[in-house]
Design a protein that fits this description.
By secondary structure, this protein is mainly alpha-helical. It is 73% helix and 4% strand. The longest helix is centred in the middle third of the chain and has 83 residues.
Length: 295
């Protein structure tokens, strides 16, 4: 792989280590976060309850003021009624007094309903305030129990972050942008290694989604310095360390002659050589002259 892809793999490995450390930290502090949310929710409910109680108390104050105003008006009308000059004027005051009494009765009923609501709200707020104190105590206990472990894991996260930042700085902006986008989408799994299921075949798959890849994907990644994406899951593909070229690329072996044909050919050659030797020996014997007898 070229420098861009090698830098991306280094960034991917550093990012994975950082995410794993952050996951361990999140797992340890999970109970604390849950308790924090519980405390926050309870505190918010108490705040809303107290705000509602204030509104109800303000409404009760308005009803009380209305009752006092109507009582004063009724007393004033009664005084005027006593000084009426005739029966007609007396009856007019009486009607007004009765009307004010009816309205006063309505205000009293509304005030009683509001006062009941206020008493109920006060009791609920008191219970919530007590529950909030209990949950706060639980949160402090959890923080104390996991405090040392959280500090240790937080230190690990902080120690890994510079290496991740350094690896990111070694990647070109365009490649880094593609990596960050995929990392956000797949929760850190931005890249996927090639795999060769059958060592005897020139076939490759994406290890993230098991999608079959084109035959020459290894050669392209090995010989070119450009990003290649899985056509299925769209992750960035890379060559893992356990898939070197001698294992990834299947070499065709030279064909050998069949054993049977080679043996026949050798046998034929042997027979031909033997026949030639026999013929040569016969010819030599015929050409030799006869030796004359000795006298």
């Amino acid at each position: 792989m070229g420098p861009i892809n090698i830098a991306l793999v280094k960034l991917y490995q550093a990012d994975q280590k950082l995410r794993e450390a952050q996951a361990r930290l999140d797992a340890v502090s999970r109970n604390a976060r849950i308790q924090e949310r519980k405390v926050a929710e309870l505190a918010e409910r108490l705040r809303l309850g107290q705000a509602t109680l204030k509104e109800q108390q303000s409404q009760a104050g308005q009803f009380e003021l209305d009752l006092k105003t109507r009582e004063a008006k009724i007393e004033r009308l009664r005084a005027q009624q006593q000084n009426a000059s005739n029966n007609r004027e007396y009856q007019t005051f009486l009607i007004e007094i009765n009307t004010e009494k009816v309205d006063k009765g309505k205000s009293e009923e509304s005030l009683l309903a509001v006062m009941e609501t206020i008493e109920k709200a006060q009791a609920e707020n008191k219970e919530m305030a007590a529950a909030l104190e209990v949950e706060k105590a639980k949160l402090e206990s959890i923080r104390t129990d996991i405090g040392d472990r959280v500090k240790q894991l937080q230190a690990e996260v902080d120690s890994l972050r510079p290496a991740r930042d350094k690896s990111a700085a070694g990647v070109t902006p365009q490649a880094r942008q593609a990596f960050e986008r995929l990392a956000d989408r797949f929760e850190g799994e931005a890249m996927s290694a090639l795999a060769k299921p059958d060592r005897r075949r020139e076939e490759y798959v994406c290890t993230a989604c098991n999608m079959d890849l084109v035959t020459d994907v290894y050669n392209k990644l090995h010989g070119r310095d450009e990003l290649m994406f899985c056509p299925s899951c769209h992750r960035i593909l890379y060559i893992p360390d356990d898939l070197p070229i001698e294992l990834a690329v299947h070499k065709v072996k030279e064909k050998k002659e069949p054993r049977g044909k080679t043996s026949d050919l050798k046998a034929s050659i042997g027979r031909q050589t033997a026949a030639e030797d026999i013929g040569r020996s016969i010819t030599i014997e015929e050409d030799e002259p006869e030796t004359p007898p000795t006298v």
